[in-house]
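thread from #wetlab-drylab

HS: before we spend reagent money on co-crystallization trials with adenosine-5'-diphosphate, can we at least see a predicted complex? here's what I'd submit
DV: go for it
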Amino acid sequence: MDIRMLRGVGETRARTLAKMGIATLEDLLLHYPRGYIDLSAPCGILDAPLDRPCAVLATVIKKSGEIRTRGGLKMYKATVADDSGEMELTFFNTKYAVESLDYDAAYLFYGRVEGNLLRREMRAPQIFPPRADRPFFAVYPLTAGVSARTFSGLVEQALKLSPILPERIPADIRAEYRLEGIAGAVRAIHRPQNSDELETAKRRLIFEELFTLAAGVGLLRTRTRAAAAQPMEPHSLQPFYDALPFTLTGAQRRAIEELTADMRRSAPANRLVQGDVGSGKTMVAAAGAYFAFLSGAQSAMMAPTELLARQHYEGLSPLCGRLGMKVGLLVGSMTPAKKRAMHEALAAGEFDLCIGTHALLSQGVSFQNLALVITDEQHRFGVAQRAALGQKGRHAHTLVMSATPIPRTLALMIYGELDVSVIDELPPGRSPVLTYKISSGKRERAFGFIREHLDRGLQAYIVCPRVEAGEEDTGLRAATDYMLELSGGAFKGYTVGLLHGRMKAADKERTMAGFQDGTVQLLVSTTVVEVGVDVPNAVIMMVENAERFGLSQLHQLRGRVGRGKEQSYCILLSDSTSPETLDRLKTMCRTNDGFAIAEYDLRTRGPGNFLGQQQHGLPQLRIADLATDVEVVAEAQRAANRVLADDPALQKPKHAALRAAVERLMDSVGERPN
Ligand code: ADP
Ligand code: MG
């Protein structure tokens, strides 16, 4: 039913609503409130909390005329009272609120109470009748052009017309999980009569959203399983193991065996290797590429930064050389002529492994016989990019690697279509990095500590949040300026290098090469060193303005050290006094366990911030929260699997509504289920 059939919705308003994704009555009703004004238990004026909004039941005893402030604002005041005391209400630029109040009449005023024991005040409160006809008043996420009052009115009208809403949860699942029907749940989410009703409705709608997501991920899984891939021949990997300068850990061996077993099948491998920083994931990729090479096929490996691509290229070239494989590099900063030459060589199948960045996704790139597609630091790429590279090899196996330890509940939803190998073991001989939080008063001492290590032939990083100091003083360290300051001051006589994303590729390369071979002793950089950089001789990671970084990011940065035999240190410098920041940094000092850190991050910051919406390709959820709705996630997952077992492509008529919802959801992240 078109939204324009509602009273008060003309063309202009319809356009505004369309921008919010609302074109029909159904859309309107599926636009859930983001919260509620709780009118069920009003406070007295004196005992109202000062730190959060609440409802106060009081009687109007005085109204004032217009008052002009010095800033030219028009102000209107009223005084209200209850048994405990009096409170002043202030409204700006609108006289209607005060005019609408009757003397000696009681109202519910909703807002934040301010002031002290003697004088209480509420600015621009919302006004409700004293016995609100319902205890919870829905608050909607709105854009400019439609007021809260208008929107509530539209919802009211739509509820009266009760359009038929699609029931996406099959009846047997609803019965099993005790979920109410969609119509009742939607009514209650907009107009809850009491908190029980609200909770029941919420659970049902959260379940529906997660169930739809789980079904979508399940469909993707079916689709990838059903596609045909080129099975690799069962050659032995012994030559690979023999060519390594070290013995692989048990976890690495296991991941390699799982991957190569997948690759021998005619269904495409779709494997995620998840392992903390430094766990040696690259070797799994190398083994996979070698396995493809033994069958005469090629592999491509995509890294999120040029720095990392080059490092992989340089790191893997000697090993691959010993194995008779030819390795190529394709990155954005190469000259057009060089790129063209690479494109031709790739199409001709001259390289057995091609390492690169997004450049691998560009139009001109084709492979002769691409059998394995590897994505490193997968959380940096969206689902769509991952798929784009996959399409370069029509029947390619895929391997994705990630150091961002995704808590299990999230992993199920994000990577549900993938098989997972976990590398839960670090190469032997590593001692955990010791982490300390200091404030700037101790900076000089930290420098002394770093100098002692440089004198012993070791290396260090100092990471800053900015590239250059801007016009205004942000109090944030900038790598460019800091590098100059340090090389002429605290680190005079030492070789100090600079690295940031805005440098020319050739300059970056030169600095990295210098740091790699030890001529650069101290590297001042931005977070470009965050992912993957591997210099085992570097033992100290100092982070300036540590409060500016997410924990997972700090953990990644810390992962740059502790890669060799020497004891390594991470120094987090921050002058922040916020208890939350201090708690976060304390968590870093307490544990080296990436999973524990990720759980903490997820709990305190929510999944959106934790991963970044774009990066993991997860659709925007309306009502569910993957971080807190953990139990429902598991239930919805189980329910979706049951439905898919019975109807793998969701083609039965009874699943039509579910299928339509899944398609909408997947469309929003650029995936199409079959
Ligand atoms: P990440 O999992 O963070 O990508 P890398 O693959 O970069 O880790 O490996 C980190 C370092 O450990 C590299 O220098 C690599 O050569 C080394 N390494 C990998 N596996 C082993 C092993 N089994 N024994 C010793 N060193 C290893
Ligand atoms: Mg890596």
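DV: DSSP finds 23 helices and 22 strands in the chain.
HS: ok that's useful, forwarding to the group
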